[in-house]
Design a protein that fits this description.
Largest sheet of chain B: 7 strands, mixed
Radius of gyration of chain A: 13 Å
Strand content of chain A: over 45%
Structural class of chain A: mainly beta
Number of helices of chain A: 0
Distance between the termini of chain A: 38 Å
Order of helices and strands of chain A: EEEEEEEEEEE
Largest interface: A-B, 26 and 25 residues
Oligomer: heterodimer
Shape of chain B: globular
Distance between the termini of chain B: 36 Å
Largest sheet of chain A: 6 strands, mixed
Number of strands of chain B: 11
Chain lengths: 113, 112
C-alpha cells in the first residue's frame, strides 16, 4: 500500500529546459511535503518543502506546487543543469512531532548536454 | 560539522550472522530513524525513536532491533541476517519541531 507514489522511474531533460517531477499521495492526513535529492553513494539531502496551507513554494531554480484536491505535488527545476542529475524522492508527513516521513519510490533525473 | 555518521559503510555477512549498524548524530536531535533503500521500493522506515529510551516500529521492522540509550546514538541490530536484508541502510535524524530529516551517507549490507 504505497501512500506516496512517483509513477515515473526516470526522466531525461536537456540542459536549460524545465524538469517536472511528479508525486501523488493517498493519505489525506499528510500536511507537509518534502523533496529530497540523492546522488549515488551518498545519503539523500533535503531540497525543498511545502506545507498544506500553501500551493507553491519557490527556492531559486526549484519550485514545488501542491494541489491538495488532487493529492498531487510536483517539483519544477528551471533551468535544468547537468549537476541536477540525481534521484529525487518525494516525501510526506502528517501533523505531530513524532510524525514519520513516508517516501515515494524516486525518479531518476538525467540532464543531458 | 559531522551531522549524521554511520558505520560501517560496507559489510558482507553470511546468512545467520549478527551485526550492528552504528549511527551517531551531533545535532542534539530528538528524532532518529533507520530506513532501507531497495531498487523500485524507495526508502522504507524500519524503526524510529523520538528520544532516549523510546523506540517504535516503522513499516518494515521484522528482523531488526533498535535501542536508544543516549540522544546521540541509535544502533540497528540484525540478530540473524537473511539474504532479504541485503540493502542500503540510512540513518536519519531531525529536531521534533521540524520535518526535515538529515541523512547519513548510508551503509551497504550484503548477506550471502
Amino acid at each position: 500500500d504505497q501512500q506516496v507514489k512517483q509513477n515515473s522511474p526516470s526522466l531525461s531533460v536537456q540542459e536549460g529546459r524545465i524538469s517536472i517531477l511528479n508525486c501523488d499521495y493517498t493519505n489525506s492526513m499528510f500536511d507537509y511535503f518534502l523533496w529530497y535529492k540523492k546522488y549515488p553513494a551518498e545519503g539523500p539531502t533535503f531540497l525543498i518543502s511545502i506545507s498544506s496551507i500553501k500551493d507553491k513554494n519557490e527556492d531559486g531554480r526549484f519550485t514545488v506546487f501542491l494541489n491538495k484536491s488532487a493529492k498531487h505535488l510536483s517539483l519544477h527545476i528551471v533551468p535544468s543543469q547537468p549537476g541536477d542529475s540525481a534521484v529525487y524522492f518525494c516525501a510526506a508527513t502528517g501533523t505531530g512531532t513524532a510524525s514519520k516521513l513516508t517516501f515515494g519510490t524516486g525518479t531518476r533525473l538525467q540532464v543531458t548536454l | 560539522n559531522a551531522g549524521v555518521t554511520q558505520t560501517p559503510k560496507f559489510q558482507v555477512l553470511k546468512t545467520g550472522q549478527s551485526m550492528t549498524l552504528q549511527c551517531a548524530q551531533d545535532m542534539n536531535h530528538e528524532y532518529m530513524s533507520w530506513y532501507r533503500q531497495d531498487p523500485g521500493m524507495g526508502l522504507r522506515l524500519i524503526h524510529y525513536s523520538v528520544g532516549a529510551g523510546i523506540t517504535d516500529q516503522g513499516e518494515v521492522p521484522n528482523g531488526y532491533n533498535v535501542s536508544r540509550s543516549t540522544t546521540e546514538d541509535f544502533p540497528l541490530r540484525l540478530l540473524s541476517a537473511a539474504p532479504s536484508q541485503t540493502s542500503v541502510y540510512f540513518c536519519a535524524s531531525r529536531s521534533l519541531n521540524t520535518g526535515e530529516l538529515f541523512f547519513g551517507e548510508g551503509s551497504r549490507l550484503t548477506v550471502l
